[in-house]
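Supplementary Methods, section 5.1.

A reviewer requested that the exact input to the structure prediction be made available. We therefore reproduce it here, unchanged from the version used in the analyses.
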Amino acid sequence: MYVLELGGEDHAFAACEAESAATSVSVMATGLARCGSIDPDAVSRLAYTHRASELVGHTDASVASARTLLSAATFDREGSVAVRARNIQRTANVSTQQAERELGSVLVDRGFSVDLDDPDHTLRALFADDVCALGWEAAASVRDFGDRNPTTRPFFQPGSMAPLLARALVNIAGGGPGRTIVDPMCGTGGVLLEAGLIGSRAIGNDAQWKMVRGTEENLGTLLPDDADFGVIRGDATALALRDDVADGVVFDAPYGRQSKIANLDLETLVEGALSEARRVGSKCVLVADRPWAEAARAAGWEVTHAFKRYVHGTLTRHILVLSPQDMSPGSSDS
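The structure derived from this sequence is encoded token-by-token as follows.
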């Protein structure tokens, strides 16, 4: 078992992304989730999970209980250690300094030496709400998203998606080494950039030449030389791509009542894009200013998760995670 340290305001969304790197993820307290197993390399690519630790156990959120738990725990480790305690979002009535001091003393009594700079092992004491989880740090995500602010890219347009969210969407859609991600409305290429940075083959499409050229410039400048990507100008409702070419499709639908793309009204555009996503991909993540659940189901998708993320003013992003409907005989969608 492992414990995950989640980031962001929506822990259900963070847990959904974490499922790309862990099994049986469930939220246990503010900012914490437990899971069955992890892929350490995949954890390093997550946006809304900061760390994963091998779970020693969990108890109530007090230093005394944490000390009792650690004293009774069995583990096959030796060498140097550091204890890092967190009071997540200050939801627990606990002193992290006291926790580090007392838990460190337990480990010293059990033969460990203390090395705060370069320890062999790091014990994380995570206090949240009425829970304390103890775990040996096993993997951490790479927190370099601030280096890719959309305004610092060679090509920028207002409304570009932040890299943190783009990375999470790519992970939820199944991106990663050896995987293919398609964005049929790629804009300035933020989703494709994050897909390429984690080793995915990134394929973009946009109806405007300006966006195609801008995305090519961004990807060519910011992705590694060996990255596999391509961008085409085309209609999102009739993609020039073969069936089942993608492992996942991610797109950010136009906001507002009408689309300015390809002279299509918004409903026709989104419905057509969802149908094409179903043709070319085995999973889809749709971002929009409204829920498109009925259109998704009509296109052959099942809504497995739905999230709302407040942006500003009256703008709320709706995120739908879509999987193919069960089309087997006797299924409700057949």
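Residues 2-140 form a domain with the VC0802-like fold (CATH 3.30.2130.30). These observations are discussed further in the main text.
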